[in-house]
Design a protein that fits this description.
By secondary structure, this protein is α/β, with parallel strands linked by helices. It has a single domain, classed as 3-Layer(aba) Sandwich (Rossmann fold), CATH 3.40.50.150. 31% of the residues lie in helices and 22% in strands. The strands form three sheets. Strands 1-12-11-2-5-7-6-8 form an eight-stranded mixed β-sheet, sandwiched between helices. Strands 3-4 form a two-stranded antiparallel ribbon.
Amino acid sequence: MDTEILEAITKLTPFLDKPTLGNCLEVLPQMPANCVDMVFFDPPYFLQLPSKAPLIRWDVKTEVQSPEEKWDRFDSFEQYDNFIVNILTCVRRVMKPNATIWAIGTYHNIFRVGKILHDLGFWILNDVIWFKTNAMPNWLAVRLTNATETLIWALKDRDQRYTFNKEAAREYAEEDSSRYRKKISKLSINVWHIPVCSGSERLKRQIDGKVTRLHPTQKPEKLMERIISISTNPEDVILDPMAGTGTTGVVARRLGRHFIMVDNNPVYVQAMEKRLNR
């Protein structure tokens, strides 16, 4: 075996198919360049919620659990942009020339992330609207209900031929078309009707005797299944540099892909390990 390839495998093995506790800005530089086939990029959304005022349901005057955690708070747009640039620069280095990246966010951040992707040389292939069929109610009733998130699918090198599994996309077209009066496309359209995590899929924990969610933005397995099926092949390596509760790895393993998951929160990493051990 070529010495360079063997060295790359040796460097990658400690992170492969298991969660890694650490800051991705410190972990990714330890990995060899050009080793990842696809990236799922789920950064903090920078919701910019009031730091002290509680979120109150206007009708019954009860408090709503905030979707914001301390890792979602930044002092300015400039600080947030620098954070995204630094991580995507590290991510880009480990991506193969034909690798693609899926970035997800809300209206708070996705447009900033999209600009940064362009600035760093990525070529945008699609935007996808994730329509949440069981979105949070509009408690305040002062603007339209936020029922969507946006995904940006982008290619590292515009001149490369990337993975797009048309057969998988055709299967999802059947599922999508069931929501319309007639079949509107032979391939999956870029509006995906998928519910947010609930019931047994939603990971929980106890705090002060109360059962609460483990992570505010846990992604549903159905969403990750569609992403991975459409844009990767068996044995591909998928990177999630801010992996949260580990949905990427759980679905990747089920579909016969390898994964690298990094997170700096030991509670989340422990939850990933439990999910994978099941």
